[in-house]
């Protein structure tokens, strides 16, 4: 399986990515940009991104998975990051994947906050992708922040095996706050503000740009997107298995949700 | 800092990021640090700890390489038929070869989190270039006091109601079980089969005799695994190597070093160990193993 390391981004905002060529080598039938979620969700879903890249390669598609600046293996400090910076990173990764070739379909796949970033980046892309797959996207910032806080408490309760109130009393944990550290990652002032101001996922402008969209959501999230139901370029998918991607423990859940792989392979047809 | 990520290994299956030192000592590179996966966590480490470590080490004049072992992070599985842990040992030695070539130093220290610690001590048994290991939450052996503390912990967690329920269950045999709450669900420690104490002690003896610096660190988040500082003495106090081991019980931290306070405590402890123990040790010639 042919992989190469790509280091890209403007000076001072570099990123590291892994490009996976299609097998057998030759003209790929599609290029796929894989946009990770952030923080603990990024760690927990790392295997999905490798397995997805390998599977897509066997289906004749090349892919690029990357760490946004200040995350994962890329240079930069977490606390200095912003949503707008990461949207720019997504566009830089897109250009890296295109590498001046615009002859075959380009698909973006994003999970969690990575999906929300991909959606916003697609609105700004010089040449947008032909398809966008948003898997369990962050629909609005305040809800996401609340989920992060709950996930933080839940994770520490599980790790120490002590109820939250007792954990706080013991001094081993403090109430999470933004800006601050959530689930082991630092969130700076600007990012904290941006998350609080992030409002509903807007799919309509993308549909107007001619993109095809697959949005995989939980039942509850689906209600927020009900108004767009029936649009010929939008497919809503209800995720089969709800997984707590903020937890470090798999708790018996699949490493790669089967419906995720199936949905991604279907985008190649 | 010019980090460099590359693909290496005879099967071109390993992904590794090299971080050069940002300061240099007159005698050259003293030691290279190896940083790798903890369980299925990618090479950036638990909560990106390996990235933070790489930068701090660079400032101390120590280059590092953080890498994904076969089948983890960005590294793909190899076609080799070796058992997985043996393959990871081989992967680590491959990365050591590449790092030695890049940084011109044949002495290594390894910071091994959990399963990474298991690999680290096995590498050191095979490869005399590995001169120091920080062993995070590896095997623990329970003493009587550990069992007593575990029982007390369980009683406290269950509360009076839970205790009565458990007694009732014991008596009645099959009362319907309520679903456990989040903090009651145990975490599987991500190491392979725990060897018998005497087997592990023999390995430690061999490493200590060979001049390998060992720092054992246990977190405060394993109340049924390692639950008091005295447990370390009860595990190894009877062995002649005991006084030559480093030990730290980092009670503020959970297994994945999640909170900022835990991260700061871990980094400070590591800095101190490297400065006090590792750097002086690597400046002395290696002893035959």
Key words describing this protein structure:
heterodimer, A: 269 residues, alpha/beta, 8-stranded mixed sheet, two-stranded antiparallel sheet, 10 strands, B: 289 residues, Rossmann fold, 2 domains
How would you characterize the overall build of this protein?
The complex is a heterodimer of chains A (269) and B (289). The mean pLDDT of chain A is 92. Chain A is globular, with a radius of gyration of 18 Å. In chain A, a hairpin with a 6-residue loop joins strand 1 and strand 2. Chain A has ten helices and ten strands. Chain A folds into two domains: 3-139 and 200-266, Alpha/Beta hydrolase fold, catalytic domain (Rossmann fold, 3-Layer(aba) Sandwich), CATH 3.40.50; 140-199, no CATH class. With 269 residues, chain A is of the alpha/beta class. The longest helix of chain A is centred in the middle third of the chain and has 20 residues, at 141-160. In chain A, strands 1-2-4-3-5-6-9-10 form an eight-stranded mixed β-sheet. With 289 residues, chain B is an alpha/beta fold. Chain B is globular. Chain B folds into two domains: 4-141 and 197-282, Rossmann fold (3-Layer(aba) Sandwich); 144-177, no CATH class. The longest helix of chain B is centred in the middle third of the chain and has 29 residues, at 144-172. Chain B is built from seven helices and eight strands. In chain B, strand 3 (32-35), helix 1 (49-59) and strand 4 form a beta-alpha-beta unit. At the A-B interface, strand 1, helix 2 and helix 5 of A face strand 1 and helix 7 of B.
């Amino acid at each position: 399986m042919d992989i190469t390391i790509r280091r890209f981004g403007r000076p001072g905002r570099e990123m590291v990515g892994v490009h996976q060529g299609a097998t057998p080598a030759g003209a790929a039938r599609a290029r796929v940009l894989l946009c990770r979620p952030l923080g603990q969700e990024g760690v927990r879903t790392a295997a999905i991104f490798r397995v997805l890249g390998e599977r897509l390669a066997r289906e004749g598609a090349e892919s690029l998975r990357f760490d946004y600046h200040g995350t994962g293996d890329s240079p930069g400090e977490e606390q200095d990051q912003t949503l707008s910076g990461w949207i720019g990173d997504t566009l830089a990764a897109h250009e890296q994947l295109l590498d001046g070739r615009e002859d075959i379909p380009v698909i973006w796949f994003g999970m969690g906050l990575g999906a929300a970033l991909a959606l916003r980046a697609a609105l700004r892309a010089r040449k947008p992708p032909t398809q966008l797959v948003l898997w369990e996207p962050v629909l609005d910032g305040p809800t996401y922040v609340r989920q992060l806080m709950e996930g933080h408490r839940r994770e520490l309760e599980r790790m120490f095996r002590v109820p939250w109130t007792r954990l706080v009393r013991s001094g081993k944990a403090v109430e999470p706050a933004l800006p601050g550290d959530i689930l082991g990652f630092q969130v700076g002032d600007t990012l904290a503000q941006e998350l609080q101001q992030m409002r509903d996922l807007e799919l309509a402008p993308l549909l107007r740009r001619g993109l095809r969209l697959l949005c995989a959501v939980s039942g509850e999230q689906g209600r927020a997107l009900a108004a767009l139901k029936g649009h010929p370029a939008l497919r809503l998918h209800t995720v089969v298995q709800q997984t707590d991607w903020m937890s470090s423990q798999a708790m018996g859940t699949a490493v790669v949700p089967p419906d995720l792989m199936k949905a991604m392979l279907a985008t190649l047809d | 800092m010019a980090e460099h990520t590359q693909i290496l290994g005879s099967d071109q299956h390993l992904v590794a990021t090299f971080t050069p030192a940002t300061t240099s000592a007159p005698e050259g590179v003293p030691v290279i640090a190896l940083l790798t996966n903890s369980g299925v966590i990618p090479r950036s480490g638990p909560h990106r700890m390996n990235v933070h470590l790489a930068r701090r080490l660079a400032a101390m004049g120590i280059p590092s390489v953080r890498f994904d072992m076969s089948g983890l992070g960005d590294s793909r599985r190899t076609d080799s038929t070796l058992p997985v842990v043996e393959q990871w040992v081989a992967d680590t030695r491959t990365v050591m070869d590449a790092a030695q070539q890049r940084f011109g130093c044949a002495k290594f220290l390894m910071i091994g989190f959990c399963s990474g610690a298991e690999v680290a001590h096995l590498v050191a048994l095979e490869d005399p270039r590995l001169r120091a290991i920080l062993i995070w939450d590896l095997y623990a052996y329970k003493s009587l006091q550990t069992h007593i503390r575990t029982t007390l912990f369980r009683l406290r967690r269950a509360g009076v109601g839970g205790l009565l329920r458990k007694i009732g269950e014991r008596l009645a045999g099959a009362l319907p079980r309520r679903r456990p709450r989040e903090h009651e669900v145990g975490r599987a420690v991500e190491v392979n089969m725990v060897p018998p104490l005497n087997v592990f002690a023999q390995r430690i003896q061999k490493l200590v005799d060979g001049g390998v610096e060992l720092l054992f660190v246990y977190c405060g988040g394993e109340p049924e695994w390692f639950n008091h500082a005295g447990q370390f003495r009860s595990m190894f106090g009877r062995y002649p190597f005991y006084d030559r081991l480093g030990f730290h019980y980092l009670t503020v931290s959970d297994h994945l070093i999640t909170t900022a306070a835990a991260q700061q405590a871990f980094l400070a402890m590591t800095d101190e160990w490297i400065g006090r123990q590792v750097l002086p040790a690597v400046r002395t010639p290696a002893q035959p193993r």
